[in-house]
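Milestone M4 deliverable, item 7.
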Amino acid sequence: MRFLANLKCNHTRASFAKYAEILDANLSTNDDVTVFPPFSAFDIAAHKFKLGAQNFYPCESGAYTGEIGKAMLDEFGVKSVMIGHSERRELGESEELLRAKFDFAAKARWQIVYCIGENLSVNEAGRTKEFLAEQLKNINLGYERLLIAYEPIWAIGTGRSASSEQIEEILNFIRKQTRAPLLYGGSVNAANIGGIAGIANCDGVLVGTASWDASKFLELMRVVS
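Output delivered:
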């Protein structure tokens, strides 16, 4: 099972060094773990987990004030990127920009974690599958280094996770459209990860708040180990 940690706007270089030390002391080389820290916390140390980028601009480098390009990620050996997280979409990232990011990342042969998810109004209107299908039309679902992360927006950081039955229904729906590994994200915690891990089409989890503390992140892994 894959475990991905989205540290979001948390951790300094010093605190991430301690975070990484705890993970490295407890992970084995067989564990499939990727951590997405803020750019300022990147390091060049060898870890038992993969280092990923929460965001990037689809360029090698250039006149893009405030952006991070491939040349900068290459310096840290980053080969995994997150695209389409709802928090980025809410800041105004359009489907066109997301597609440009996807195409650039695919050309670079990076692992892509592509996030999709619906808000509460869409969910309550019973339009979740229709909404997700539209989001998935934006990318090449046959890309071999693709991971799809289903994150219902109404469950991100709210403490309100989708039920195992809801997650299973949606992942089964997505599985009909792609062979890519499927992840669930949205208030994943020690209490619900056992049920989530038992879903046949769930290949891993993208963890937010529960991953910010290294010891708590490791606890999630132990629950399903």
